[in-house]
Amino acid sequence: MIENRIRQARLAAGLTLAALGDKVGVSHTTIQKYEKGRLTPSSSQLLKLARACGVRTEYFFRTHTVDLLRPEFRKLSSFGKTAQEALKLKVLELVEKHVELLSAFPESPLLAFTPPSGLPNLISSLDEIENFSDLIRNQWQLGMNPIPHLIDTLEAIGLLIIEVHEDNPKFSGLAATARTEDGREFPVVAVSKLWPGDRQRFTLAHELGHLLLKGRLAEGLDEEKACDRFAGAFLAPQVAVIYLLGQQRQALEWKELYALKHEFGLSMAGWLQRAKQCGVINGETYLSLVKRFSARGWRKKEPGDPLQQEHPQLFAQLVYRALAEQYISDSKAAELLGIPMMRFHKERQLGVI
Ligand SMILES: [Zn+2]
Fold first, then answer.
1. From ligand 1's centre to the CA of 225, what distance in Å?
2. How far, in Å, is the centroid of ligand 1 from the Cα of 192?
3. pLDDT tens across 66-87, in order?
4. From ligand 1's centre to the CA of 173, what distance in Å?
5. How far is the CA of 229 from the centre of ligand 1 (A)?
6. Assuming Cys at both sites, which of 147, 201, 224, 314 could form a disulfide with 155, CB separation 3.0 to 4.6 Å?
7. What does the CA dihedral 36, 72, 116, 223 come to, rounded to 10 degrees?
């Protein structure tokens, strides 16, 4: 068991065998032997391993209490298998904290995620996704206005949203099902902390698309494309696009797209796509706009102020709720929040001591 945990801690810390060996002062083959169970590290070695991987030594003796099933990555293809496994482990660690917190409550304080009822079972074209997304917005009472805080909205419908530190820009997000030891399952969506708010929101909406569209797409419809279309439609519904841009346009001003980006939390490039998808501009106008957009280098980095990132609030809020009800101790609260006791005491008093 300990051998797997050493490997997991190393991967989660993003270290190669050699890099961990260097930090601990042994060769990479020794680390490999630890990981294969051919050699057992002494307790002082274990302490060094823990420090090098940024975990406590207890980590090596714990087994995972949660499984991540059917992970779907939103990433570039060059984000390889090892990187994916490391990422999955980071997410798993964070999901376990949530499960630990929730199990401290006598009754779960959260709603179970269920897709709205009455959704069509078969979607046979990308255009049908517009209607599909409107149905979902209606059922969740989101209206047709911008969604100000998407993470809040998704948390309120029972999705577990995890923000994950990942320096590799090839990774954007991940959707999976978490299964606990007692067989409960719930959806998890992880999003990289690296990107500006509009990109994060698009990733979140895309991953929501996976959860809702799975099993409903007609043969031959590409799931990734369908989820992208869903993300656009969910963030900027067709009726809003047409109301704000007009039925038909020959040209669009950059400043219009910039204002709409900040109003709806959808990138300027996303708005260009929405204009085409909703029939406001034709394919030719779209291509010429995209060409000019790219020529300015805006595909890589959009102009003006970036959209602020969103952060999940629910976890910290539930920690304090559990603390108030004495379901957890001070030290458990600090541990769950990942901060030292001193800082925890200060934050608990809102900095006033
Ligand atoms: Zn996807």
1. 8
2. 14
3. 888 888 888 888 888 888 888 8
4. 8
5. 11
6. 314
7. -150
